[in-house]
Fold each of these.
Amino acid sequence: MGVGVIINQIMVLFLLMGLGFGLAKSKLLDKPTTDKLIWLLCYVVMPCLVFNAFQIPYSAELWHNFMLVGGLSCAIHILFIVLSKLLLNTRRLKRQGIAEQMQFTAVYSNCGFMGLPLVVALVGSNGAFYGSVYIAVNGIFVWTHGLLTHSGRLERRALVKVLFNPNTLAAIIGCLFFVLSIQLPSALHDAVGHVAKMNTALAMILVGAAMAPVKIGKIWFSGAAWLSVLMRNLLFPAVVLAGLLALHISGDMLLVVLALSACPVAGMSVIVAQLTGKSTDFPVKSLTLSTIVSLVSLPMMLTLADTWSRAN
């Protein structure tokens, strides 16, 4: 895949985000409407996309790649957790009360809302297939390690949310259909496919709308937010890229795993802060700044990966 294609696909996503930002700023897309659209995206559209990704003929190679992506996803999250503990656990950050939030923003990327549309745009059905594995692993870590980092305790309800999350269920059921070579009836398959196609535009519009309330001018002067961006957008993805190349991972799998791990700060950083009664000031600043910077950092990382992959 050429550099121009990568940059073009990312620009499309940011234009959709700009549309959402403009609609929210002009009050045409208010909070109650946004909340309902987020519910539609998370509980209907994304599960359809995840399930539909598994509606392909079974092959031993695809199953091997599926398991490989699962292993890589677990390893990446564990590596990020260790690095965040080593680099973002200083006394100064603890005194400011943001050490745990910075660790969360460094570890967890916006792989669902922003990452899945990106990899689907880049590599098509393989992006959804591999991406669904990464997102399922990410969800498990968010509701276990992520919640534990913020609250100091692990609640049974959090584990239930992981197991019964529609996207996790869609991945499990889709995987069973894939392994057993079960295909949906034509009409139902087409209907699920049409809903799945809504994901990219709807997700990006909602990400843009979420940024509208933030006073963009103030975030440029937050040293803590910039440190978070350095970790999430540059340092951690660079470590992943080096590791994937060392393991001789290439092609679609390289682009998908790198793209999802290099996405900006996760929107879950704000949601988890709200759930645990913590201030959302830092997560919102970090999320907004990281998303803006990703306009440059994401094409850079993906271009490096694509150039190296084609050269070797």
Note: The first helix runs from residue 3 to 25.
Amino acid sequence: MSSLTWVRGVNATLGRLAPEWAARRMREVFITPRALPPRDWELPMLASAERITLRFGLSALRWGEGPAVLLMHGWEGRPTQFAHLIRELVGAGYAVVALDGPAHGRSPGRHANPVLFARAMLEAASELPPLRAVIGHSMGGASALLASQLGLRTEALVTIAAPSRVLSVLRRFAAFMGLPREARYRFIRQVERLAGMPVKQLDVSRYSLDMPGLVVHAEDDPQVPVDEAQAIHAAWPGSRLLRLQAGGHQRVLADPALSDAVLALLEGQEVSRARRLALAS
């Protein structure tokens, strides 16, 4: 019997006998990220970075000079997972700042959730020059969308392998871990209370998105279904949808088509800015 099968069996039993306790136990698992070390291919990018500390102890890595682009990794992720994209952005003349999310890397905290990630981006943006773009992967993408509703200002936004609503993420996790119905309900309510925001509000269909954007997703993503990208695109009038045939949930970050699309989006913003300045002069 595998460890996952054993855990699911225990959760199924305890979830019926003591649903609140089982929900609390899985809530702690869900909100407590593991510290995963960088892969060998990430190490050169890590070595070339400048480590900076922002407000409230948030840690970040910085590369390059020029207009600012803010990156936010996903759950149990790292800034250097964006290595290929960072090289392309720096080479194109951008300054890249990539956060360690709350409870990740060198940033403080033991627990994390999308609301904490969104607030971290707001705090970072308050200390950085005006943002040319914000780019988020997975939960970082969902949190970037949320941050845009909480006051984050950026000229463009990119989501990569991001879910369209947090409720779907919670339901998939609870089902995967074998929680029965009542325990699933209590698990979602507990996460909701900790986040301090009704989970139904963490849904892109409720957002007002008025900046240009790019929604990227791989068809073979095993963690976040590609239909989530379609939902984000449908709710975002100014977005372009890029569906890649392969790339899974993580490898998509190194796809040249991603960096090409991001640079094309930023170049389009540069042209639009130049036109506005010409008309104003």
Note: Residues 32-165+202-208 form a domain with the Rossmann fold fold (CATH 3.40.50.1820).
Amino acid sequence: MQPDARLERILATSALVIIALISLGNVVVRYVTNVSFAFTEELSVFLLVVLTFAGAAVALRRNRHVRIGLLERALPERARQPLIVFQWLSGATVLGLILWFGAKLTLQEYQWQTQSPGLGVPQWWYLVWLPVLAALMLLRLTQQTLDRLRGRLDDEP
């Protein structure tokens, strides 16, 4: 059975459907009235970030994230495990930094009560998803790494 990231799949699918619907709606309204909705770009950019992070989490969990396996395949079996741990450590460092600084930025935006430029909603509503999705990616990376170390996932998906 293939590992799954159901929550992230639902988030990514929902974000993609909403982007498509509001973009289509904006095109139709602009064609009919020669005026476009101002909020669609702001909402689309936010949903694109959600789609990217959620999709990356799904790819991590299913062992389909882009990586170069040439070095892994060239190493003897004993040397692969330290390399897999190093790969996890590198990814965890980057995701940990995104999580930390994303949370810090979200808290600052919450404290400053910054409003978004298009809809005028609190900016932290958009930013809070950055650390949340980075944490989910970190979880999926760790799950993938443990599966790889235990031999449950092949080098090639």
Note: The first helix runs from residue 6 to 33.
